[in-house]
Amino acid sequence: MLGLLLSLLMLAIPADAQESRNAIRPLRILHIMSFNSPYIWTDSQFDGFKAGLGADVKVQYQVFQLDTKHQSSAEEQEHNARRARQLIEEWKPDLVYTSDDDAVKLVTTHYINRPLPFVFSGVNLSAKDYGIQGASNITGVLEREHALETIHLIQALKPGIKRIQIFSDNAAYWPQVIGRIRSIARTHDDFELVGVDQPVAYADFQRLVLENPNKADAYLILGNFNFKDAKGADVPYPQLQRWIAENSKIPDLSFWEDRMLHGTLAGITVSAFEQGQGAGKLARAILIKHQSPASLPIKATTKGVPIINLERARQLGITPRANLLLSAQIVKSYEWAK
């Protein structure tokens, strides 16, 4: 009789109250970063994830850094991925949150249609590219750059810019990003993509930047982590960014906040916080509202944040108009000068 009464009481609890009760139950979430921390792109995604999940949810987090920007060889990446997968088996999280492409490629794809739910953010390739489209246990947030808006911003800063040159390292996800930019260029006559260079050697990158063989008006910098020095080691990206600022007289643009902090002139950036927040909301739907990951669509975020580095503008002899300054987030100095 007592058991029956308890069952009836449980049924009488409103759905909102049951959700609140479930949210108090401690949950284990393993966050597998493609990159490392501290790093503003990675850290802002994680902050957004926590906000999207909600402060009312009691969570025990564990973080694993694949650190693929510093440990970039195939052997290093696979070694770290095995460690991450081992941690999943040993710690038995309720959900795994992966950020950026490498974590999806190296970890998430090993758990397709398994009971453990996965949520991702910051992914440049499509779900189909990774073979996770339609997977019963995987959903997430795609990263889509604001290419045309960024080009229009640089043109507003310096009228007359039309010829755009792309520079990037050769990480596996950049060809699709470059492909999207090529598609935009084919349908817009207000700019021209005059070249795409992905040198492996840092010395070759430096030479191309200085020579500007395609007579570009502006440089669009994508990947900046995997250029190799004379010993075959990856050149630290702050070092590369500083070299560009101190040696190139060509206006430069990019899509990520940390680039403007480290000397790039301007860009309409992808919001890392919004990426993570979207993933956090998906995790809440799965863990608290008990929705199936497959029922939650994989989508891209839409918010873009204009950022202008005033010190770089001054160095290039550019005086931004007041309306641009009022509508943008302003970086007043170089990170290395602080």
CATH class of the largest domain: Alpha Beta
Rg over alpha carbons: 22 Å
Low-confidence stretches: 1-23
Strand content: 15-25%
Name of the CATH architecture of the largest domain: 3-Layer(aba) Sandwich
Rough shape? globular
What string, H for helix and E for strand, traces the elements in order?
Answer: HHEHEHEHEEHEHEHEHEHEHEEHHE
Task: Report on the biggest sheet.
Answer: 6 strands, parallel
Textual characterization of the structure:
The chain is of the alpha/beta class and 338 residues long. The chain folds into 2 domains: 2-144 and 272-300, Response regulator (Rossmann fold, 3-Layer(aba) Sandwich), CATH 3.40.50; 147-270 and 304-337, Rossmann fold (3-Layer(aba) Sandwich), CATH 3.40.50. The chain contains 13 helices and 13 strands. The protein has a 6-stranded parallel beta sheet, sandwiched between helices. The chain has a 4-stranded parallel beta sheet with strand order 7-6-8-9, with helices on both faces. Strand 6, helix 7 (174-186) and strand 7 (192-197) form a beta-alpha-beta unit. Helix 3 runs parallel beside helix 11. The longest helix has 18 residues, at 74-91. It is globular, with a radius of gyration of 22 Å. It starts with a helix and ends in a 7-residue tail after the last strand. 42% of the residues are buried. The model is unreliable at 1-23 (pLDDT under 50).
